[in-house]
Structure formats: C-alpha cells, structure tokens
Write a structure and sequence with these properties.
Blueprint lengths: L4 E4 L5 E5 L47 H29 L1
C-alpha cells in the first residue's frame, strides 16, 4: 500500500506534498488481520438494584471545600492590606 501526504494551510492552499508512487518511504505494509478475542469481558454490574460496585481504581476529582479556601484567601488579603496601611502610617509618622 502506498500513502500520499499533502500539507495545507487554513485556507486549503497546498504547502507541501509527497506523492511519489515509487518511493519506499511511502510504502506501508499491512500484516494480517488481528484475531478477535473469543471471550467478552464481563461488566461489573450490581446484582441488586440500589447496590454499588467497588473497584480498585484511584479516586479522581477535588473534594476540597472551596468556601474554606475562599475565606482563607480573604483573611490573607486583609492581613496584607493591614500590614501595608500600618507600614505606610509608620513611615508617615517618622517623617
């Protein structure tokens, strides 16, 4: 089997092409069709409605409390602003 390649830009203009039927680098060899498995994998489905199936897969996602992090960020911002005001007034009093 021979594969032809064409590179185009967003407007469809051809920038480069490689279409030589005699080129060994464009020849692709396809081996015979892979065998299909005879046994289908079993799904882990609950036998009783309302039951859950536990797996050994890792837990994904973030369960952290966003409100806690928001409050901590607000406290840190207030502390930074307070330190800035304190240092500004201290410098003003020294002058």
């Amino acid at each position: 089997m021979v594969v032809f390649e064409t590179l185009t830009d967003a407007n469809g203009n051809i920038l480069a092409s490689h279409e030589d039927i005699e080129d060994e680098d464009q020849t692709v060899t396809v081996s015979k069709k892979p065998e299909t498995p005879t046994e289908t994998p079993k799904e882990d489905t609950p036998t009783t409605p309302g039951t859950t199936v536990t797996t050994d897969s890792p837990k994904t996602g973030d369960d952290s409390n966003i409100m806690l992090w928001g409050i901590l960020a607000a406290i840190a911002a207030c502390a930074g602003i307070g330190c800035g005001i304190y240092s500004f007034r201290k410098k003003k009093d020294e002058d």
